[in-house]
Amino acid sequence: MTAQPASLGRRDLFRLGFGLVAATGLAGCASNGGSSGGGTPIGPNSPKVAAAERARQIAGARKTSVKLAAVQSEVDLGGITASTWSYGELPGKEIRIRRGDLLNVELRNELPQPTSIHWHGLALRNDMDGVPGLTQDEIPAGQSFTYEFTAPDPGTYWFHPHSGVQLDRGLYAPLIVEDPEDGGNYDTELVIVLDDWLDGLGRTPDAVFDELRANGMPGMDHGAMPGMPAMPKSDLLGGDAGDVIYPHVLANGKVWKAPQTFATKPGQRIRLRLINAGADTAFRVGVPGVPMTVTHADGFPVMPVELDVVLLGMGERLDCVVTVPDRTVPVLALAEGRGQFTQVLLSTGVAASTDSEALATELAKLVVPEMNALRATDSVALPLREPDVTHDLVLEGPGDKYSWTINGKAYDPADGLPIRSGQVVRLRMRNKSKMFHPMHVHGHTFQVRANGKIGPRRDTAIVLPGRELIVDFDADNPGQWLTHCHNVYHGEAGMMAVLSYVE
Ligand SMILES: [Cu+2]
Asked: Which of 4, 154, 329, 357, CA to CA, is 20 to 30 A from 132?
């Protein structure tokens, strides 16, 4: 019943075979990673991947089929029309399934470039992870590809291409996996997707990336010139807050002056599912005067904590429950270090008497707690154990031609960090650059170790400049998995590595 991608085959096997040869040659001198550790990489077509998928399947699972097209289209950002690439609307239409369900998505590529879909945060079968050149062939323009996989864990997820810098166009949408057993202490829910926007307003992400490459570093022809906007800076993020200037930031596809309005009533408890789909922007989010009870980080439950403001790096999600007051209030999302914001209005029918710009200024002054200090609930926390294998990920950049590296190397799919099924794997991420990096691991949800304590379970976590972050995960999902910075420009410029299951 499992779908085998039609386009995978000899070419894929050849590539993995080549990787093995290359790795064997290096084995004698590699001290930490950089080789296959004497084993054979477990590729996306391995029977072990199919076996892991069978183990995920549960009785009574439903199958949800979705047809999706990636298209060139115009979108209305709220009085501003942008010509972009999208899944038909902005954000793309949400997909909502239940835990254990089989999701079948046929993607038709109507773009002028090859594309792919990565199902961000899901511990899914490796051949459906959507990384061209690693887990599948790219989907050429004019062709289709069908993704089919079991979604094992409930939570707030999303999907986007893993092709070039396409993520910085309009190609993103929420994927919500419900838990039949999750009654939830709330009345209704609202998904809010945040984004930084430049596409189709005189520039494209591809052109921006070429500029960065040509200049060698960000801001060479922006921040240094009088009258041009300064490059983003943030004390909260420990230095540089972004490499790209964006004319707009969006919440559910809209600028702050034309916000989405969510009809509600006083006393209603709303579960906000916040998703940062930005390419280069962290967002701080708050509802002025209304505390938020944070319940989940990247889909996994945390010990509930009441906060006035939260921070989301690129790729991260937070679920927060708010109780609607007697008046209309905005959910404000501030682009950290940029002086820009956007919002969604929680409308009680009574016009807001407050000025969102003034409220945003106040929100910018609040102290933002350390998100990596959230604590996973006992039901999902991974116990503190000695790891079986530790890999250092030294994060550096920008180097020559805007290169961003892990362990001094730009991304090479054939040069994986070896791990083995059943191991407790530790990643020690060390940020030696002047910019924060939201580091994402595919196919797994790791346990953040916050100063030796148990932090949140997450799939993406910010590593601040000059700091180290330790995360552990159980190697229970065989295949070839990316770990990378979710700044799409950093990732595309090399800041990606492969966690390579070997046998
Ligand atoms: Cu980065």
From this structure: 154
